[in-house]
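quick one, 242 residues, struct below
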Amino acid sequence: MKKNKMKYGVIVLLVALLTTGCGNKIPELSEQEQELVVEYAREVVLKHDKNYQSRLVDLSLEQENVNEAEPETPSEEEDEASSDAKETDGQEVSVTDNTQTEVQNVTLEEFLKLDDVKFTYNGYELDNFYPQQGEELYFIMEATQGSKLLVLKFLAENTSGTEINLDIAKTETRFKIIADGVGKNALTTMLLNDLTYYQGTIAPGENVELVLVCEIPEEQTEISTLELTIKSVDDSATISLN
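---
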């Protein structure tokens, strides 16, 4: 009822405005009359503006579409990458060189393909310096701070009846020392009796001492298990030294 009265009052005011003719003078309105005109005009505009409601609906639908949108499905490549990551997470990944063949139950001379030489493991020593003494010390190794030298000793014996020239350097063989399960590559040295790079002459029935050297923690005073891994261009093998 109040709303109808407001509309009636506004209509009367509008009629009064229209009947004033084309004169320049605008009739004066009280503050209450001005509020009535503004309120009515607002309702009329909203009622007849069809786009007003449709815009609200469109925005609402767009928001719903955004909320209901399904999560993006990972691509096949992403799935494979994720699977690989789960399988390798926290695990060591080793890459096997397919060009190398693991040789079982082989001796050092067999691996090096030496017919007239026999190698015998002759124990190890732990030193801060190597060699400790000798008639002519051309080269001395010193352990780095916090480490000591692990020196493996081998006797290479000439089993033939003639003098032989032993050249291990040309075989391009590499050695890794495994002490109590921890592998260390044999150090490259300038020692004349370094097994990896030895070149020399051995008389019939004679032998020479050759060595392989690596570093271990200085607090390690003894070794329970020793193994030697040998690698060439084509083959590899592991020999127990215990």
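Residues 101-240 form a domain with the Immunoglobulin-like fold (CATH 2.60.40).
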